[in-house]
């Protein structure tokens, strides 16, 4: 078993294909500088966000290992965090990520029907992506908009009080269609 430092060195060598641009590395340093010295682990969440944004919208093992190297952490410390929070994607996602809240208030107001309707429209279940790479469906925990249940997040926007018609409109607009499907 290699020593931890050797392990990190080996991982660094394997990670040549994943690396931030000079500008992004500067951003990482600025994030780390917000926290006390030796507490670079506190920068993990924002650096993972940055990595997800930069490397195709998801975190591969290679990307997580790269983040571990940057923050001088063990890879397992990064995996633990990345697998805990639903905001990190651990496999490739489609162009449009539909994150449907499935916690109590949304569930009581029909989130399961919304998920079922998305399956009816797009043929994808939670965790799946359409064959054309356009849509990924994900179910997530409370997004803090319980008063607008059922709701979903699409990119940085919330879509609230969802109905079948609103899902039709959403899919049509993401697909670049001018007419709205009605079923
Ligand atoms: S329960 Fe869905 S936003 Fe809170």
Write the layout of secondary structure elements.
Layout: H1 4-14, H2 22-33, H3 44-54, H4 61-70, H5 75-84, E1 96-101, H6 104-108, H7 111-122, E2 135-140, E3 152-154, E4 157-159, H8 164-174
Parallel strand pairs: 1-2
Antiparallel strand pairs: 1-3, 3-4
Helix pairs in contact: 1-4, 4-5
The protein binds FE2/S2 (inorganic) cluster.
Determine the fraction of residues in helical runs and give it as a percent range: 40-55%
Low-confidence stretches: 1-15, 178-183
Structural class: alpha+beta
Question: Over all CA atoms, what is the radius of gyration?
Answer: 19 Å
Query: If you average the pLDDT, what whole number results?
Result: 89
Return the CATH architecture of the largest domain.
Answer: Orthogonal Bundle
How would you sum up this structure, described in words?
This protein has helices at residues 4-14, 22-33, 44-54, 61-70, 75-84, 104-108, 111-122, 164-174; strands spanning 96-101, 135-140, 152-154, 157-159. It is α+β, with helices and mostly antiparallel strands. The protein has a four-stranded mixed sheet, covered by helices on one side. Helix 1 packs across helix 4 (61-70) and helix 4 packs across helix 5 (75-84). The longest helix is centred in the first third of the chain and has 12 residues, at 22-33. The chain starts with a helix and ends in a 9-residue tail after the last helix. The structure holds FE2/S2 (inorganic) cluster.
């Amino acid at each position: 078993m290699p020593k931890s430092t050797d392990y990190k060195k080996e991982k660094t060598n394997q990670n040549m294909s994943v690396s931030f641009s000079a500008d992004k590395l500067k951003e990482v340093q600025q994030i780390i500088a917000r926290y006390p010295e030796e507490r670079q682990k506190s920068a993990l969440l924002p650096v993972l966000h940055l990595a997800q944004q930069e490397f195709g919208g998801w975190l591969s093992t290679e990307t997580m290992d790269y983040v571990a190297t940057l923050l001088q952490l063990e890879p397992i410390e990064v995996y633990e965090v990345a697998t805990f929070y639903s905001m990190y994607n651990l496999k490739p996602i489609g162009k449009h990520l539909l994150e449907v809240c499935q916690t109590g208030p949304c569930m009581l107001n029909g989130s399961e029907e919304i998920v079922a309707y998305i399956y009816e429209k797009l043929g994808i279940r939670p965790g799946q992506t359409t064959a054309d790479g356009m849509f990924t469906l994900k179910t997530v925990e409370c997004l803090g908009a319980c008063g607008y249940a059922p709701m979903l997040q699409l990119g940085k926007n919330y879509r609230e009080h969802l109905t079948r018609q609103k899902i039709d409109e959403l899919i049509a607009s993401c697909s670049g269609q001018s007419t709205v499907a009605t079923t």
